[in-house]
Amino acid sequence: MEKAKDPLMKRRIMLALIGMLLAGVSVGIFKRAFFGVDPFQCFCGGLANVIPIDFGTLYMLINAALLAVVFFLDRHYIGISTFINLFLLGYVAVFTEKGLAALLGEQGLLGRIVLLIAAIILTCIAASLYYTADLGVSAYDAIPLHIADTKPKLFGRVMPFRFIRVFCDLICTLTGFLLGLMPGIGTVITALFMGPLIAFFRKRLSDPLLNWGKNA
Fold first, then answer.
1. Is 136 a residue whose pLDDT tops 60?
2. Is 154 helix (H, G, I), strand (E, B) or coil?
3. Pairwise pLDDT comparison (88 vs 129), residue with the higher score
4. Cβ contact 22:206 at 8 Å
5. How far apart (Å, rounded) are the C-alpha atoms in residues 183 and 172?
6. CA 118: distance to chain centroid?
């Protein structure tokens, strides 16, 4: 069934918008926690250490390159969420970070830990929502999703998405580290647990939200 004829299209759009909004908010919270950046940001920061151009420009070029790869691999993952992520997510993150700074000020260790936990949970909920919406994902998110779609096998068993996502996040974290960016504890936690948590929230939250009342 084509998406244009999908009776759940309005709900998909709502999930995509809410998911991307929460993704931007979670990035802002993550920055206020001061426990390191997420794995993809770690990768980009590492490249910024060795490529002498403005970080904002470099970040856009990396995403553009990934978007080109995704376009040729599986353009199904390019949609409204992709462009919201590309053009608006950064502004939401900055607004959230500044708002938290004005509202909460500098936090002690306990406050930073609470912010880190909130950021990780929100990041995974956000990803689960726009994954389920199936209206495009960020260029980086599309890579592990595409790999999972090919059903790669390890020791004869199909590897689930959650393991593939952990592998991709660890590669990004390791690359950033080798290029001179020191990962924080938040980076490591996100790399290890984001994949399983996204899978958990898709099963328990976003998929049921999309299909709620469908068979009633």
1. yes
2. strand
3. 129
4. no
5. 10
6. 15
Given CA atoms 206, 208, 212, 214 in this order, what sign does their dihedral have? positive
Q: What is the rounded distance in angstroms from the CA atom of residue 169 to the CA atom of residue 166?
A: 5
Is 2 buried (19+), middle (13-18) or exposed (0-12) by CB count in 10 A?
exposed
Residue 23 burial (CB count, 10 A): 24
User: CA 197 to CA 139: how far, in whole Å?
Assistant: 20
CA distance 176 to 201: 28
- Give the number of C-alpha atoms closer than 13 A to the C-alpha of residue 94, restricted to the C-beta side: 5
What confidence tens digit (pLDDT) does each residue in 44-83 have? 889 989 998 887 788 888 888 999 999 998 888 999 888 8
Q: pLDDT tens digits for 16-46?
A: 999 999 999 998 999 899 998 889 989 988 9
Residue the block writes with tokens 């990962």: 183
The answer to whether the beta carbons of residues 135 and 17 sit under 8 Å apart is: no
> Which of 21, 29, 37 has the alpha carbon at shortest distance from 101?
29
**Closest by CA position to 32, among listed 116, 149, 91, 127:** 116
The structural domains of the chain, with segments of one domain joined by +, span 7-211
- Token code pair at residue 126: 């956000």
